[in-house]
Amino acid sequence: MIRKICIILRPDGVYELLNRDGLIALCEGSILDTFHLRHENIWPEIKGLPTENMEDPVLWYSGGLYHCVVNQWSARTAFYIISENGVDGWKLADGIAYSPLRDFIRYEDSDVVNRWNKIERPGVYLEEGVVKAMTFSVLDLPKEEDKGNDGHASKVIVVPFDGESLNRFAREQYYGKQNQKV
After folding, report:
1. CA–CA separation, 3 vs 5, rounded Å?
2. C-alpha dist (Å) from residue 81 to 18, 38, 42, 118
3. What is the structure's pLDDT at 1?
4. In the sheet where 77-83 sits, what is the strand order?
5. Which pLDDT score, from 0 to 100, does residue 108 have?
């Protein structure tokens, strides 16, 4: 079963599908054509990446690399992985992508932190192949405490993002500081 998928159109004109179970499939031609399995589950192949309870992968191409953020719901932590071809050779970047347990969303020109109890379902907004913003579904209290008409319903937030810096970081993480491809 294909669950919680992300599909992108790659620069080579091929569609790529990634799901929460780490399955990768490719489709040449129309997005309505058959997708062909390339990997059953990439998560165990990535050194240091958890393999259980993964969800909400978001996949994109920028700066000459394929990028993916995937959330481990049980740890409430998302991880950032990078690949040169988007199919194999994935590497886990240092640190974490995001977590509601860490302060990382601040209002512009302010020290005021925007805190959320639950952050999930990331999305990426690109302009001319560079990440300009990320979207997240957020909730300010545990999901099981959210009741109808209580003002705590989930929201979608848009977070401005420095995609050029991310591309530099990704190249450094993937190729190493001395061996970066340009």
Report:
1. 6
2. 13, 18, 11, 21
3. 55
4. 54-62, 65-72, 77-83, 91-92
5. 74
